[in-house]
Design goal:
The protein contains seven helices and 44 strands. It is mainly beta.
């Protein structure tokens, strides 16, 4: 009876310890990370982030974007677009990915934000393994800013000055300030009134009644501060001057005309000379975002040329720029005071700007480029009798003109240039590559070219290849998953930017952009996953001149210690160490007969322990490979046998060979194999020898000799236990 009890103890030891025969030195951190990744990947949602919002006029220096979390996501990326219109067609927006990635569910954007501009955001969720969600809905945001378009009446009333401004979207209230000095934000400034924003009108007007004793006929300066929903105050606006009319002042000057796109170098204001020789003139000018400036004043000794034969004076302003609309106020004055001012708008003939050629696939499947651009200043001026004309000339990749068409102003809000659904080397020569746009008004004309060339098809790739379990190179280190880099190389006649798409056997996808060169070092792979690398030689519509080449299944070598841990999980004991067992089969192996027999051996009562003396076999779910268990008494000790035939609970890895352990009553013994060790096959081929393994204190001691067969040679390693 004593011998039998010793035998049972040996079997208990053997069943419990043999389940860990290759790894008695504990788990390693990086394999735990892989397990967490597998669990996370199985729950990752492809649905884009929801409830995205962006602050509107909350802060004057930042926009805060928030969204709901996506299950299984590791981080998020944001894209931003901008427009000077709040109601812009979002299909025309040009999206740019922001540099930062975000691990949480909010982001503070304080990068190059401008007032009078609206910003659009969308978010996408990602995993570290390359999976990504759909893109979220679009959120609109803006910074808090005071009005840019402001005016104050000059001599329109003897008692009041009317301040008018264009409202800023999402602002709650406006505060008005005044001063006798141009610096309204200085010590001389005085609060005037607070006006609520209104949804009923684009402009707001406030009538300021002057102090007749102190302010009659004096020039006052007014500025406005916008206040947002958080009660934060924007920076004060630029000031605008106004005054009331005084008795005896000259009559309102007669402006004959002002040039509006009729000149490329100067703006000319023409006005009729007053018959009163005591009358002189002041001309002020401002533009959006600039202060009011005196550009002519007879009071300071400036002189105009003599009137022409019609008694008309001409002021020529050469200190102006194209692309800017200028507001001029002309005031006549005498010794008693200024007249009511005449306000006129003038501008130079300016080239178009912001030319964009946006690739577009319509709902009906038509492909083409949508041409958009900001028209010349004054294009919407309804007072002009003569309208702008735009000549759009298209060129191919070789710089040869394809065609040229003239469009009248008002008919070019969007121009769609279709392309063929398939392309040949011959048809490619006639496709759009870039455009020039000439704006003309009468005899004057100006040219502008698209600044960015259209993304065309990449040069064909002759071949592409990726490493497959190659030996590590000097200096290479594994990533946090224990995997060494995969090297992808390709051959082409042209060195240009390439997009490499990686598709994993686990369903993951990831893109790499290589700006130049003919190789990619992928350091982000997982063990037991094969990857196919596709190289993009197509254009923005997915059209290609030839077959899109790919590498076929590729993968890198792994750390030899990790190699043994994977084998232990996938092949040696999927019923116990399930780190790399597919989720769908974990429960199967936990409830298998082999698992039951092992649990019997770990029981505390003798009757249950005796049940471990049995046989069992099972199959994997990928190739039907078998695993066999057999435990029996052996003299005063015990023996246990495991046999593997093409067995591996993974499509890419399996085991052949047998293993046995003989233990005496003192807990020491030997480990051996009737097949001279274990042969690991599939992705990672290796032979595991037990020649340096023995048993002491019911556990393995020594080291395993692991001979790994790489695609370019063999290497031997010793892994201690």
């Amino acid at each position: 009876m004593k011998k039998f009890y010793i035998l049972v103890l040996c079997i208990i030891f053997f069943v419990s310890c043999n389940a860990s025969i290759l790894m008695n030195n504990g788990e390693i951190e990086k394999t735990e990370k892989v397990e967490n990744n597998e669990e996370k990947e199985s729950s990752f949602s492809k649905k884009g982030p929801e409830h995205i919002s962006a602050t509107k006029a909350y802060y004057k220096d930042r926009i805060v974007i928030r969204w709901s979390s996506v299950e299984g996501a590791d981080f998020y990326t944001l894209e931003r677009a901008s427009s000077d219109r709040i109601d812009v067609d979002q299909t025309l927006l040009v999206w740019k990915e922001m540099d930062e990635t975000v691990e949480g569910t909010y982001f503070v954007d304080g990068e190059n934000l401008e007032k009078d501009e609206f910003y659009f955001y969308r978010v996408q969720a990602h995993t570290y393994e390359g999976k990504h969600s759909d893109v979220s809905q679009v959120a609109l945001g803006s910074i808090l800013s005071s009005p840019s378009v402001i005016s104050a009446s000059k001599g329109k009333s003897s008692t009041n000055i009317e301040i008018e401004w264009e409202q800023v979207p999402f602002v709650e209230t406006y505060k008005i300030y005044k001063s006798l000095l141009p610096n309204v934000s200085g010590l001389e400034s005085e609060y005037v009134a607070t006006i609520d924003a209104s949804l009923d009108t684009k402009e707001l007007v406030y009538s300021y009644e002057i102090d007749s004793e102190k302010e009659k006929g004096k020039e006052l300066y007014f500025a406005i501060v916008a206040i947002g929903a958080t009660n934060e105050m924007a920076d004060i606006s630029l000031p605008r001057s106004g005054y009331t009319l005084v008795p005896g002042a000259p009559g309102t000057p007669e402006v004959v005309g002002i040039t509006k796109g009729d000149d490329k170098d100067a703006i000319t204001i023409s006005f009729r000379k007053d018959s009163d020789d005591d009358v002189n003139w002041i001309i002020k000018r401002y533009s959006l975002g600039s202060s009011e400036t005196i550009v002519y004043s007879g009071e300071y000794g400036d002189k105009l040329e003599d009137p022409d034969e019609n008694g008309v004076l001409h002021f020529v302003d050469k200190n102006v720029k194209s692309g800017v609309e200028y507001t001029y106020s002309l005031t006549a004055y005498n010794s008693l005071g200024p007249s009511a001012a005449v306000t006129q708008v003038g501008y130079l003939l300016s080239p178009v700007s912001n030319i964009s050629l946006l690739p577009l696939v319509k709902e009906n499947g038509d492909r083409g480029y949508l041409l958009t651009f900001k028209e010349s200043i004054g294009s919407g001026d309804e007072e002009r009798e003569e309208k702008f004309k735009y000549t759009i000339t298209r060129y191919n990749k070789e710089g040869v003109q394809v065609d040229s068409s003239v469009y009248n102003e008002g008919s070019i809000s969007s121009l769609f240039f279709p392309v063929a659904k398939t392309v040949t080397p011959e048809s490619e020569k006639n496709e759009l590559y870039y455009v020039t746009i000439t704006v003309s008004l009468g005899e004057l004309s100006l040219d502008a070219s698209s600044s960015e060339r259209i993304p065309m098809m990449k040069a064909p790739v002759k071949s592409i290849a990726a490493t497959k379990n190659e030996k590590r190179k000097d200096g290479e280190v594994p990533n946090s998953n224990g995997v060494y880099p995969v090297t992808v190389t390709w051959a082409s006649d042209v060195d240009e930017e390439r997009t490499i798409k990686r598709v994993g056997s686990d369903g993951s996808e990831k893109e790499f952009v290589v700006s130049s060169g003919f190789s990619l070092l992928d350091t982000s792979t997982l063990p037991l996953v094969t990857y196919d690398y596709y190289i993009d030689t197509s254009d923005v519509f997915g059209r290609s001149l030839g077959e899109i080449k790919h590498t076929g299944p590729s993968y890198a070598s792994i750390d030899e210690t990790l190699l043994l841990r994977i084998m232990e999980s996938v092949s040696l004991k999927p019923f116990d160490n399930q780190k790399y067992v597919p989720d769908g089969y974990k429960a199967y192996w936990k409830n298998s007969k082999i698992a039951t027999l092992v649990s019997y051996g770990n029981a505390s009562d003798l009757s249950t322990q005796m049940k471990a003396l049995d046989k069992a076999d099972d199959k994997d779910h990928f190739r039907g490979g078998t695993i066999t268990y057999n435990a029996k008494m052996e003299g005063a000790g015990g023996a246990i046998y495991f046999t593997y035939s093409s067995f591996g609970e993974n499509e890419n890895l399996w085991l052949d060979g047998s293993y046995e352990m003989h233990v005496n009553a003192s807990g020491t013994g030997s480990a051996s194999s009737s097949t001279d060790g274990l042969d690991l096959k599939g992705m990672y081929e290796a032979h595991i020898s037990l020649e340096k393994i023995s048993v002491s204190k019911k556990a393995f001691v020594g080291s395993y000799v692991v001979k790994v067969t790489y695609s370019d040679g063999e290497e031997s390693y010793e892994v201690g236990v």
